[in-house]
Specification:
It contains 10 helices and 5 strands. It is an alpha+beta fold and 209 residues long.
Length: 209
């Protein structure tokens, strides 16, 4: 696998018949995670809990399973994932592409190969992409909570973060100041938040304009 070590990416091969465990990872990837090949082979499913963010994994894992079930050797699935490198506290974003690599004699998929490229956090465009990905995760994590708001409360939420005063909003909507304050209190209660910063976070993530 000398070619895999030369490529400007992390190359991983998973064994589908052994519960999607790692069969091979290039040296670059093993150094990133601080593990040996033997450790990876015996780690089993702990590999995913230890090195990957389960929140975004909940999005791409089902689609990975769909890829496998279709058993199409020409199909490629590309996705973003967060990885926790060895001796680092923060997640790093990777753009990964996976495809089937091998079938058995009964034409069942047995191996997949993944090509993962780190998104450079120092690039200006990368920072924007990372923010979009973070917003997407926030949206997925809080969609059910946000859906408890009435349509009127959703409208008020966006207006509350417009920079206008409560009095200005009341005049704009032809309601009393107390009505706006009551809406704000109810919105915070439903969303389980106490600060204006978190109110803005929800408004930004769920802004449909």
């Amino acid at each position: 696998m000398q070619l895999a070590d030369w490529l400007p990416a992390v190359v991983i091969i998973h064994n589908l018949q052994e519960n999607f465990t790692v069969k091979y990872m290039c040296e670059k990837g093993r150094k990133l995670l601080g593990v040996s090949m033997d450790e990876l082979k015996t780690m089993g499913l702990d590999y995913y809990k230890r090195f990957f963010n389960e929140k975004d994994a909940a999005f791409y894992v089902p689609r990975m399973q769909e890829l496998i079930s279709r058993n199409n050797m020409d199909e490629v699935f590309t996705f973003f994932q967060q990885v926790k490198p060895h001796n680092k506290e923060n997640w790093e974003w990777y753009l990964s592409s996976t495809r089937l690599l091998m079938r058995d004699l009964e034409n069942r998929p047995i191996l997949t190969i993944t090509h993962a490229v780190r998104i450079d956090a120092e690039l200006h465009l990368t920072k924007k992409v990372s923010q979009l990905l973070e917003d997407n995760l926030f949206f997925r994590d809080n969609y059910l909570i946000y859906s408890t708001l009435t349509q009127r409360e959703k409208e008020i939420l966006q207006l509350l973060t417009s920079g206008k005063s409560v009095k200005q909003l009341a005049e704009e909507l032809f309601v009393s100041v107390n009505t706006i304050k009551t809406h704000k209190k109810n919105i915070k209660s439903k969303l389980g938040i106490t600060t204006s910063e978190k109110l803005i976070r929800f408004a930004k993530a769920f802004d449909t304009d």
